[in-house]
Every structure is written in C-alpha cells, then in structure tokens.
Amino acid sequence: MQTFSAELHSRFDIIAFDPRGTTNGFDCVTPAQATTYWTANHLPVTLSEVQNITSLEASFNQGCVNSNQPLVQHVDSASTVRDMEQLRLAMNVNQFTYYGRSYGTFLGQRYASLFPGHIRAMALDSVEDHSVSDDQLLVESHLAFEASWYLFKQWCHDNSACQMKNADLDQVFHQVVNGARANPIPAQYNPLGNSRPVNDWELTLALEATTAAGRANFGYTDEILFRASGGAGAPDASLARLLYDSSTGWSPDGTYSTSGTHRTITCLDRNFSNMFDTPEKVKTYADYTASIAPFYGRASFYQGAAQCYGYPLEPASPPPLPSPVPAPGGGQVAPLVVSATQDASTPLVWAVRAQNQMSGSRLLIRNGDGHINYTKSTCIQQKVDRYLIDLMQPTNGTVCTTDNFPDQPPIVLGPPPNP
Prior knowledge:
It is a single chain. By secondary structure, the chain is of the alpha/beta class. Helix content is 46%, strand content 8%. It has a five-stranded parallel beta sheet with strand order 1-2-3-4-5, sandwiched between helices. β3, α15 and β4 form a beta-alpha-beta unit. α4 packs across α5, α8 runs antiparallel to α9 and α8 crosses α10.
C-alpha cells in the first residue's frame, strides 16, 4: 500500500521535508571506531562493563559534536519547527494541512504551538508525547516493548505454523540469551557474509526488533529462537546476525556505520545526558529496567537513553514540555490523533495524553500492533482522508480493525551455494 491514498494525491500537493541534519546525516566516528563500538557487548552487567560502554558512548557523542559543527548544535525539534515555518513562507500560503507520523507528530504539535493559526487540519499518527518527565516516558516505553514479547507468545500459542509452539518460550528466551553471553552462537549462513558469532546483546536486539514490529514479523522471532536453540540441528544465529548487521550498517569490508544522526536529535530533545551522567547511575537504572521488563528492558535502555551518556551539549528543551495546540477557530479544525492499542514504539497512553491536551481533538484507535496506522488499516485510512479532505472528524474513541496483511515470508538461511 502506498504511503497516501490516490484520493489524497489528487486533492493535495504533498510536500515532505527532512528534519534538520537527516538529509546527509552526521558521521561521528571513523570506520575503525564504529567497528569497535558496534562489536562491543552493549548489555553490560558489572560496573566495569558499564564503564567500558559509557566510555564508548561518550567518545561517540564527542565525535558527533566535534565533526558536525555548527549544525549539530541546532538540530533540536524547536529549530526544525522554525524550518517548517520558513517552508510555509516559501510556499506562500497562510494555512497548510499537516499529516505527521511518529517523530513528525511532535513536530506538528510544536509547530501549532509556536506558530498558531497556520495549520488548517492536523492528523497525528503514532504520537510522541513530551508532556511528562523523561523518567515516566522511559518506563512507559520499556513496558510497551516488553508487552510485544507477550503478544508474540500468544501468537505462537495460537498459530500452528509456529515452530516454537510447544516450547516454554520464556525459558527458551533466557536460555539462548544467557548462553550467548558466555558462548556466542555461530552464524554461518548470513547472506551478507559476516559469520561472526552472535552474543546476547545482538540476539536480544534482533528479537526485540522483530516482536516490536508486530504480528507480520513474529515469524522472524520464531525462526530466530528455533534456530538459536538448536531446533534445526546445531544452534545457529544467522538471522539474528543478518538483522543486527543490517540495522547497524555493516559493510563487507568489516566496518559498521559511522552515523549518529538519531542520537544528535534525541540527546538535544531529551534530558538523558543529565539523568545518566555517571556509570553508577547508568548501572542502577539498567538494573531497574531489567526488574520491570526482564526480556527487553536492559537492551531497550542501552540502545536508547544510555546512548546520550556524556553528550557534550545541554538539552535544548527537554520534557516535560507541553505543546499547547490552539483551540479550533480561524479556519483551523481541531487535530485528529491516531494510535494503535499495541504499538511498542509509541504506546497508546501517549496518544491519550496528547489528545487530552488539545481542545476539541478526536482520538481514532486501531486495534492491533505495529507502528504507524494509516498504512495498516483501510478504516483508518478512510477516516483520516475524510478528515484531511473534508474536515470530517470521526467520533472520539472510534476503533478500527487492522487489515489482514499476510505474515512476512520466511528468510531462507541455508548453506551457501556451491561455487
């Protein structure tokens, strides 16, 4: 399904923009430094291991700032919102219609707050919320990712095609992850060509990514666990290796991505660098996340908030940061907020809280998992279209079903072909 419907394309001139710093990205370290960074085990347990990881984060972050002046100081959301206003002026329009998804929902809220009266209609799909402290947002995020594991277990229990259907999945998870820490699992059939064994960090990250993406990717989670636990013979983590290398920018020359674009924005928009400014604080919080989210909490923390450790620039406008969207009037209709019941990336509670702060706004809910709703439900698409085109708001709290998209086809990982 294309990003927008044919009707929207026929009604609007659709203009997209890249937030500051994302067009060309920010290279932060050398290829050799990036390889050291991405091959390290980012699931530290002891204080000494935490000190090693925080040292890597601080070095990476210093490189981001040193190598990308002066723009790197001005990639916070408020600065990007000012670019949006310049874009409006360049288009020579008084009002425009806005559709934002994920991070774009926060940009929409901030724009409407800082430049009131210039948005005709605003649909916010998979909402980021900055109105409460980062402490609270982190807990809500960890619990949302953790919930995706339990959704996977239910799917596997109900699906005859699940290879792990009769297994104690919690026990298998901990066995393979803990085992990979002491003895990394071979990955001999990775199509990318990297056969380096998979440790507990890389394995957990692959499992979290596939469950967080929702039902369409649960087959990948099943395959990772089945092969890593020896279900197909000797334990093999080729699929986990493939997913980890793909997401971290591994190249056939053995190096990894040098980019730090995401963190340059996150660390200016959030207060993480101040919250976790010593290895001891990092370890204490990581242990806490593991207590509330024993499957994904620690990995979620180290691939997220902990990456801002030692970031050498102060946060520009960290939460709590309410973005009061003006009440309807003057040709502007109240926003439409769209969320899913089981979105691991932007949980429903964030959308509910954001909607409650916007006078007259409506909440449209998709019953299902996965991130971004417009492309996952014909019902959502139709109601968003009617809102954007005709300014017709659905009844507050309307619930739509998820379209029955087929599960992702399996990735076949076998011995390399004969030369």
